[in-house]
Design a protein that fits this description.
The protein is about 90% helix and about 0% strand. It is mainly α. About 15% of the residues are buried. It contains three helices and no strands. The N and C termini lie far apart (about 65 Å). The protein is elongated, with a radius of gyration of 17 Å.
């Protein structure tokens, strides 16, 4: 039973990691990274590492995607401002 859970978790992690690589839009990539963090937290829980799972849950599925989204938003805003100044 435990081996089946590990295999299923590993398949989920590999699928979401592949999806994170294949997605081109940075905003969507951040959301896929969040799902990847959740699946890694599940894998760590199955592997009986709850402390690592909680850290992964906090950092990998919440903090990192949030920072990526904020960076993408700021870069797009700055790019629009630069394009507006170039037209003048």
């Amino acid at each position: 039973m435990t081996d089946a859970l590990i295999v299923i978790s590993l398949l989920l992690v590999s699928t979401t990691a592949t999806a994170a690589v294949l997605v081109r839009d940075p905003a969507r990539q951040a959301l896929v990274l969040s799902v990847l963090g959740l699946t890694l937290a599940v894998l760590f829980t199955v592997l009986q590492a709850p402390d690592v799972a909680l850290s992964q849950l906090a950092v990998g599925s919440a903090l990192t995607p949030l920072l990526i989204l904020l960076s993408v938003h700021k870069a797009r805003r700055r790019g629009q401002r630069a394009a507006g100044e170039a037209e003048r």
